[in-house]
Design brief:
single chain, about 325 residues, alpha/beta, Rossmann fold, seven-stranded parallel β-sheet, five-stranded parallel β-sheet, 11 helices
Length: about 325
């Protein structure tokens, strides 16, 4: 009897075909499965999901034979890991597939902020050629601060060094050898926020990191600094960020993620010319989507053939 696997969201076609043709699995793919009764779900042993599928006790109760959840995302704040542990469900994510795309978007936002590309584009559209109003910032020789020195943070650091920037990072869970190998200065969060010219966030959203960048820390940021968030919106306290922007105590902000998504059309963040926003597209590239699909496929096959899997998430994740 084949193993039933339910795909709840968009999934890379080639990876799905490879799962279907390997001979082990019955692949089900329909969001409407969640509207059906438990009898139709009781044989499913694996879920392949993305961030729009919220995993909690209520969802898990509908899948009595579920053994595995693989999310095709780096982040996993949409999954209640304690509930999964209680139900003996193994959870894994895809930390490798999106790191290049997320790092590149981070730097797209850095450069957009530093060279005021949002304002430059508007000036051209408006027929305004007054370049003196559009003086930007050179990054060469400046200090880049990274919050979270994992896969994405490390890639961002390499790019910063290619711009001849010195790099400092805050990550209490990363080993000292990572800092030395990448020639990065280890710092406290307070030191980083007060000293860096550019700051970017690359941590998961946990109880520890939620609103980690709040009023007290934002007040210590240099008034010319650029702040970038491509991780998770609630890591920054949005109200505190708005206060800093309104008081002109920060140079520019680039955001791909927000405390509440989708961002409302009347969000106050949209009123600031020095705020560049994108609609949570850090992993939205053809390459990342393909790599994510392959990672999910490989994890499902590995789990049901070897009963082991890489990148297992624990109930108390650390940054």
């Amino acid at each position: 009897m084949k193993i039933s696997v339910l795909i709840t969201e968009r999934f890379e076609l080639q990876s799905k075909i490879q799962l279907q043709t390997c001979g082990l699995f019955e692949i089900l793919e329909d969001k409407k499965w969640f509207l059906k009764n438990n009898d139709e779900l009781k044989y499913i042993k694996a879920l392949i999901i993305r961030s729009q599928t919220v995993v909690d006790d209520k969802l898990l109760s509908r899948f009595p034979k579920l053994e595995l959840i693989v999310t095709g995302t780096t982040g996993f704040d949409h999954i209640d890991l304690m509930a999964c542990k209680k139900n003996n469900v193994i959870v894994s994510h895809c930390p490798d597939s999106h790191s290049a795309s997320a790092a590149e978007l981070t730097w797209s936002l850095v450069l957009s902020c530093a060279r005021r590309l949002k304002e430059c584009n508007k000036a051209i559209v408006d027929g305004d050629w007054d370049r003196q109003k559009l003086i930007g910032t050179e990054l060469n020789g400046k200090t880049y601060g990274i919050i979270g020195l994992g896969r994405i943070g490390q890639k961002v650091a390499k790019i910063a060094q290619a711009f001849s920037m010195s790099v400092m990072a805050y990550d209490p869970y990363q080993e000292d050898n990572i800092f030395s190998d990448f020639k990065i200065n280890r710092s406290s969060l307070e030191e980083l926020l007060s000293q860096a010219d550019v700051i970017s966030i690359h941590t998961p959203l946990t109880t520890e990191t939620r609103h980690m960048i709040g009023e007290m820390f934002l007040e210590s940021v240099q008034p010319h600094a650029i702040l970038i968030n491509t991780a998770r919106g609630p890591i920054i306290h949005e109200k505190a960020l708005l206060n800093v922007l309104q008081n002109q105590k920060i140079g520019a902000v680039g955001l791909d993620v927000f405390e509440y998504e989708p961002l409302l059309k009347d969000s106050k963040l949209l009123k600031f010319k020095n705020v560049v926003v994108t609609p949570h597209v850090g992993a939205t590239t053809h390459e990342a989507f393909y790599k994510s699909g392959q990672e999910c496929k490989n994890k499902v096959i590995q789990f049901f053939t070897d009963k082991k899997i890489n990148d297992v998430l624990k109930e108390t994740p650390l940054a």
